[in-house]
């Protein structure tokens, strides 16, 4: 047995070094050894996005039989099962969909996807692009690789769902157009759609339509019994039946009425009936429709709330999204926990997770109507408090993730509750991702209210999320809103900064002409106000545009100018980043000797910052490792790449780790150690495949070339 260097070694049962794949141990081997094993790609968790079913679900046996029949029919024909549940608001569509979905979910081993399309809420409906992005990320596509344009999103979603057995719940849909692109392409999948509209045109997509009417009296009575107890119902059976009748068979009205009785255990059912009857007599000139019953029931529950609870209910309805965390409620009420409990107990808001809540769309609409009784100043004050809380919390996250970038100060106008910081950058990014939809909606809401400065700040503070998780569609929308807000605000610095960001996202999206216009405008504005760093940053965006267009000569020339300018300005971090880009571009044009000192300087500059910019320092080391190889410094290249690999592991940068392994593979290849080179390339390929990087094809090709070369050498 020989080691890698060819020296004889004694046979012993141990293994050292960094290995990938199988290890064969044997005393003597005659002939070839072939080991075939699948690569251990990082596993993407199976999506389990369904909300929990209602513990008090009752009735709907006929509808459940119809759903089972539709499923069986699709199974017989080998086609995807698509069912549309339609009916008025509050009729129980979502409750039925969740109840049945949980019953059949084990038939779909590849998981469940669930999105509330917000077709009839207080905010604008979810666009197909947004929903497709959510689904693709849940199916394992890294945020940075989710396409932006709708045709590409839809095509990738079809590919990702083609061979999977998925249950997809599309709740609260506005139209067939909103739904069609979200239907999974696999014939073994199930799509369950709920809507207040009938969506009859979906019949052409193979959908079965199921109309939901009011809950049958026996089911409504069981719902009441499960809430207030059998004893109270059996004590007054006629009054209980009357209460069911007054609620119009609407589960939401039944839940609110039952919650009111549950909150008053000494009340008789008759009392609730008398209240509802009195309310109907006041509006006897109106149709006794189902919607009237809901309004009447909500009026009674609302008026029974203590003043403080009612006020919070009205103000929470102004929140820019339907879901929210308990912490933001502190911006409206410093001691909100017991008040939130009252709203949950009264079925006026729903608890959907630990310290996480949601409005039913009807209840949020009703609460906003009640907020009309407050003056404009009070409503504006409540909304501003919520938006400024989001800004303060997001700024804590921003500081944890990107501490070195320039920011504009903001003086809150509302009394905002204290916000807690984050333990680390991972926790900060997790929170930004959790609240992404609310933060985007918050910036939109602020601009609608013409609070331009606040709107710009809410756009600006999303930068670390977009930097690391991409979300290009959201980023393009937010950056454009940031430009609009800066112009309304009249702040040239803010406008130039956001134009620079908009230019960069346009570059990434391949909209080069737009990007160039934005960069030139940003540089001009920054120059007008004497912001030299702003001018340099905008010109760096232009240099990256040249690079991405393939014009390396122009990119290198501009990077050199920017390096000199940043030296004059004493902008150490900006200089370090420019030197990395310049060094990489020089290496691509065979000017490695010029690149090496620049890359070493970049690493020193970034490491000397307080705190050090460890990610970009590791980036500089990887580029430097490649450059060392080009000039025959294999040992220095190996040491540099290994230190970068350790840093990228600690930072949990998958792409960075892959790039470091590629450098180490090339070091081994140049030394003639094909086995170690293959080990590192397999590491790189596994990492790149796990994030679906477009670079995986190049890594696979290099590995195949290495395997062929090794095979030829063996023969």
From TrEMBL:
GO molecular function: ADP binding
Pfam families cross-referenced by the UniProt entry: TPR_12 (PF13424)
Database matches in InterPro entries: Apaf_helical (IPR042197), P-loop_NTPase (IPR027417), TPR-like_helical_dom_sf (IPR011990), TPR_rpt (IPR019734)
Superkingdom of origin organism: Bacteria
SMART domains named among the record's database cross-references: TPR
Name under which the protein is recorded: NTPase-like protein
Organism, scientific name: Kutzneria albida DSM 43870
């Amino acid at each position: 047995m020989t080691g890698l260097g060819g020296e004889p070694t004694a046979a012993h049962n141990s293994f050292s070094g960094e290995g990938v794949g199988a290890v064969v141990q044997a005393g003597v081997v005659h002939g070839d050894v072939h080991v075939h094993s699948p690569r251990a790609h990082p596993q993407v968790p199976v999506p389990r996005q369904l909300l929990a079913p209602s513990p008090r679900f009752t009735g709907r046996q006929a509808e459940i039989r119809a759903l089972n029949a539709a499923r069986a029919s699709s199974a017989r024909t080998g086609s995807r099962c698509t069912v549309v549940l339609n009916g008025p608001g509050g009729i129980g569509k979502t409750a039925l969909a969740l109840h049945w979905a949980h019953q059949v979910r084990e038939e779909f081993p590849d998981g469940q996807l669930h999105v509330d399309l917000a077709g009839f809420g207080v905010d604008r409906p979810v666009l197909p692009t947004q929903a497709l992005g959510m689904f693709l990320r849940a199916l394992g596509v890294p945020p940075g690789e989710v396409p932006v344009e709708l045709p590409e999103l839809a095509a990738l979603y079809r590919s990702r769902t083609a061979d999977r057995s998925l249950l997809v719940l599309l709740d609260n849909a506005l139209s067939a157009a909103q739904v069609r692109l979200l239907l999974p392409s696999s014939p073994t999948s199930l799509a369950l759609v709920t809507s207040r509209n009938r969506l009859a045109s979906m019949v052409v997509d193979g959908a079965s339509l199921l109309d939901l009417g009011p809950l049958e009296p026996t089911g409504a009575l069981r719902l009441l019994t499960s809430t207030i107890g059998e004893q109270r119902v059996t004590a007054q059976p006629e009054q209980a039946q009357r209460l069911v009748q007054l609620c119009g068979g609407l589960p939401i009205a039944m839940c609110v009425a039952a919650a009111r009785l549950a909150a008053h255990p000494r009340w008789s059912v008759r009392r609730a009936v008398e209240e509802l009857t009195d309310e109907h007599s006041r509006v006897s000139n109106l149709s006794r429709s189902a919607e009237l019953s809901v309004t009447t029931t909500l009026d009674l529950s609302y008026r029974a709330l203590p003043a403080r609870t009612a006020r919070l209910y009205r103000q929470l309805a102004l929140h820019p999204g339907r879901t929210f965390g308990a912490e933001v409620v502190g911006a409206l009420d410093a001691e909100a926990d017991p008040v939130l409990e009252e709203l949950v107990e009264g079925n006026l808001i729903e608890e959907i997770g630990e310290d996480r809540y949601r409005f039913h769309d009807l209840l949020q609409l009703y609460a906003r109507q009640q907020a009309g009784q407050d003056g404009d100043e009070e409503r504006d004050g409540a909304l501003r408090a919520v938006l400024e809380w989001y800004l303060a919390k997001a700024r804590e996250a921003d500081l944890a993730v990107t501490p070195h970038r320039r920011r504009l100060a903001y003086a809150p106008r509302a009394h905002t509750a204290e916000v807690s910081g984050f333990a680390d950058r991972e926790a900060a990014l997790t929170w930004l991702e959790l609240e992404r939809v609310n933060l985007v909606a918050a910036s939109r809401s602020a601009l609608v209210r013409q609070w331009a400065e606040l709107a710009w700040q809410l756009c600006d503070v999303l930068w670390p999320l977009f930097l690391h998780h991409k979300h290009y569609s959201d980023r393009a929308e937010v950056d454009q809103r940031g430009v609009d807000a800066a112009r309304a605000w009249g702040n040239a610095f803010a406008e130039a900064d956001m134009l620079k960001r908009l230019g960069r996202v346009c570059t990434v999206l391949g909209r080069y002409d737009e990007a160039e216009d934005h960069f030139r405008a940003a540089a001009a504005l920054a120059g007008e106000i004497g912001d030299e760093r702003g001018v340099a940053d905008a010109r760096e965006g232009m240099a990256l545009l040249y690079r991405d267009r393939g014009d390396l000569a122009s990119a290198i020339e501009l990077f050199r100018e920017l390096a000199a300018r940043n030296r004059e300005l004493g902008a150490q971090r900006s200089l370090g980043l420019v030197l990395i880009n310049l060094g990489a571009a020089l290496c691509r044009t065979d000017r490695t000797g010029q690149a090496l000192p620049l890359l070493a300087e970049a690493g020193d500059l970034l490491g000397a910052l307080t705190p050090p910019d460890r990610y970009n320092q590791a980036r500089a080391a990887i580029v430097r490792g490649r450059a060392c190889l080009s000039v025959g410094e294999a040992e220095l290249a190996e040491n540099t790449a290994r230190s970068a690999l350790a840093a990228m592991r600690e930072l949990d940068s998958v792409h960075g780790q892959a790039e470091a392994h590629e450098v180490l593979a090339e070091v081994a290849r140049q030394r003639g150690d094909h086995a170690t080179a293959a080990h590192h390339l397999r590491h790189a390929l596994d990492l790149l495949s796990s994030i679906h990087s477009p670079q995986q094809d190049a890594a696979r090709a290099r590995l195949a070339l290495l395997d062929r070369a090794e095979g030829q050498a063996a023969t």
